[in-house]
Amino acid sequence: AFTPRVFSGIQPSGGLTLGNYLGAIKRFVDMQGSGVETIYCVVDMHAITVWQDPEALTRQTRELTAGYLAAGLDPTQSILFNQSQVAEHAQLAWIFNCVARMGWMNRMTQWKDKAGKHAEKASLGLFAYPALMAADILIYHATHVPVGEDQKQHVELTRDIAIKFNHDFKTEFFPITQPVIEGAATRVMSLRDGSKKMSKSDPSDASRINMTDDADAIAKKIRKAKTDPEPLPSDLDGLEGRPEARNLVNIYAALAEMPAAQVMADMGGKPFSEFKPLLADLAVAKLAPISSEMARYMQDPAEIDRILSGGADRARAIAAPILKKTYEIVGM
Ligand code: ADP
Ligand code: NA
């Protein structure tokens, strides 16, 4: 039996979106202070699986940390740190590289999407990314990982690695981690195309709400969001086949912290010309204070670095004995 422990991370690959906020950060905050240890990471080693300008990487690492803090993560309640500062992640990842199979990695949809037809030119790190992610999680014996829907397959691979390691070495050393994918906004979609997820890497800025967008930009993007001409239905079944409408309802529900069914009950029958301004006001009310707090934290980068360094010390205190024991099990 493993003590429940929560771990998750986000890449400092530039610009947090509303998808990252609702699918990840907001849920990290919700899990904090529930009596379970919470460990949240800035995964810079994942970010460099694709090219990152060094100065930008440093800045984005601080920005993401500022986003964590501004959204309500408290470094006295959660462990907040930067992945590369805790070398045990890379050390365990190597062992997992030797446990995981090439075929498992080949099946990852994110690998196929990101490497595309140019797999020969992709970095070896991009291919091995899920084994590093397994190490991130298992170096803390984390039992629960809050993530968006797009990360489900990677957490399943983490489970496969734990199962194979435990089997190969005749041990029960690693827990079989659960993904925690819940709430109204586990997959926030593009505002321009209801079949694509909202992403910081989408070339169209109008497709996403950035955490740093001001009130005018947020209102404009929501006003211009793609929708169909029908008014909102009065129940969830009425959203069938209407992905853009469903997405806006889900965003509203997650921001308002109410079930989507309640949004339908309240808003059913309204045309988008009425619903969109309500959604824009809600988004501005929830996001503007976070983005101004982020800007305030960014004025003191030294303080951010101190927080990350303190978090790394606490993370290492958990990780080091788990790595030591892993080496013993492997015979190293
Ligand atoms: P991105 O996918 O934006 O490049 P990451 O891969 O670092 O960022 O993901 C960080 C977290 O944000 C993960 O838990 C991921 O599932 C979540 N996430 C990213 N985009 C979305 C989205 N559109 N909807 C819900 N969650 C998302
Ligand atoms: Na992602």
Describe the structure.
Strands 1-2-3 form a 3-stranded parallel sheet. Strands 4-5 form a two-stranded parallel ribbon. Helix 4 (88-99) packs across helix 13 (301-330) and helix 9 packs antiparallel against helix 12 (272-298). The protein has 332 residues and is mainly α. The model has no long low-confidence stretch (mean pLDDT 96). It is 54% helix and 7% strand. The chain has 2 domains: 5-180 and 300-330, HUPs (Rossmann fold, 3-Layer(aba) Sandwich); 205-295, Tyrosyl-Transfer RNA Synthetase, CATH 1.10.240. Strand 1 (5-10), helix 1 (18-31) and strand 2 form a beta-alpha-beta unit. The site of adenosine-5'-diphosphate has 20 residues, from helix 1. The site of sodium ion has 2 residues, from loops.
Features:
332 residues, mainly alpha, Rossmann fold, Tyrosyl-Transfer RNA Synthetase, 2 domains, three-stranded parallel sheet, two-stranded parallel sheet, 13 helices, globular, binds adenosine-5'-diphosphate, binds sodium ion
